[in-house]
Design brief:
With 187 residues, this protein is of the alpha+beta class. The protein is 20% helix and 43% strand. The chain is built from three helices and ten strands. The strands form two sheets. Strands 4, 5, 6, 7, 8, 9 and 10 form a seven-stranded mixed beta sheet that branches.
Length: 187
C-alpha cells in the first residue's frame, strides 16, 4: 500500500485481477480530510520509452527512428517511440536500452533521461521514464511474439507536424518529442 504525501493513506487493498502486465485493485483510502472512500486502481510496474535520434540530435532538422506498432486496445496501428515495461528490479536506463534493442535492433552510445511522467494518475500508478538516445548502432531486433512493429524514420519537423494533426496520438511519444524539442535540442 502506498501513502500519498499530503496526508491521505490506503487503509486496505483488495486485488480484483492479477494479470501479466497489470493488477487491478480496490483501495480503501483515508483521504486528506479524514473521510474514507474506495478507489479502483490499476497497478503497473512502470515502463521506459526512448526517443532515438539518427545522427546528431542538435542538427537543423534531426531524424528520429520511430516505430509503427499494432495496438489492439487503441484500435489499430500507432506511430510511437520504442517502449516497454520494467522487469522486476530493473533500472530504468537498463530497460530503455533493452527496449530500444528489442524493438528497433539498435544500441546507443548516449542515453539521457528526459523526464518521468504519470500516465493516468486518476486511476493508475504507472510511471514512464522518458529517454532520448543518440549514437545508434544498427543490429537485429528481438521483438516479443505479440509485437507487430515496423520501423519509421521521420524528421523532427515531420514528427511535430504529425503531433499537431493528431497522426501521432500516443501520449508518451508526444511528451518525449515535445520535451526534447523544447528543452534539450536548443532550438
Amino acid at each position: 500500500m502506498t501513502n500519498p504525501p499530503d496526508g491521505g493513506r490506503a487503509i486496505s487493498t483488495h486485488v480484483i485481477h492479477h494479470g501479466r502486465v497489470i493488477d487491478v485493485v480496490v483501495d480503501t483510502v483515508r483521504f486528506p480530510d479524514g473521510t474514507l472512500g474506495e478507489l479502483d486502481i490499476v497497478r503497473h510496474p512502470g515502463a521506459c520509452a526512448v526517443l532515438p535520434f539518427l545522427g546528431d540530435p542538435t542538427g537543423a532538422d534531426p531524424s528520429l527512428l520511430m516505430i509503427r506498432q499494432y495496438r489492439h486496445a487503441a484500435g489499430g496501428w500507432l506511430l510511437e517511440i520504442p517502449a516497454g515495461r520494467l522487469d522486476p528490479g530493473e533500472a530504468p536506463e537498463d530497460c530503455a536500452r533493452r527496449e530500444l534493442l528489442e524493438e528497433t535492433g539498435c544500441t546507443t552510445s548516449h542515453l539521457e533521461l528526459l523526464t518521468t511522467i504519470l500516465t493516468t494518475p486518476g486511476f493508475s500508478d504507472e510511471r514512464i521514464h522518458l529517454f532520448m538516445a543518440a549514437g545508434l548502432t544498427a543490429g537485429v531486433a528481438r521483438r516479443e511474439a505479440d509485437e507487430f512493429i515496423e520501423p519509421r524514420v521521420l524528421t523532427l519537423s515531420e514528427a511535430l507536424g504529425k503531433i499537431r494533426t493528431g497522426e501521432i496520438a500516443d501520449g508518451k511519444t508526444i511528451i518525449a518529442i515535445l520535451f526534447a524539442a523544447g528543452f534539450r535540442l536548443n532550438r
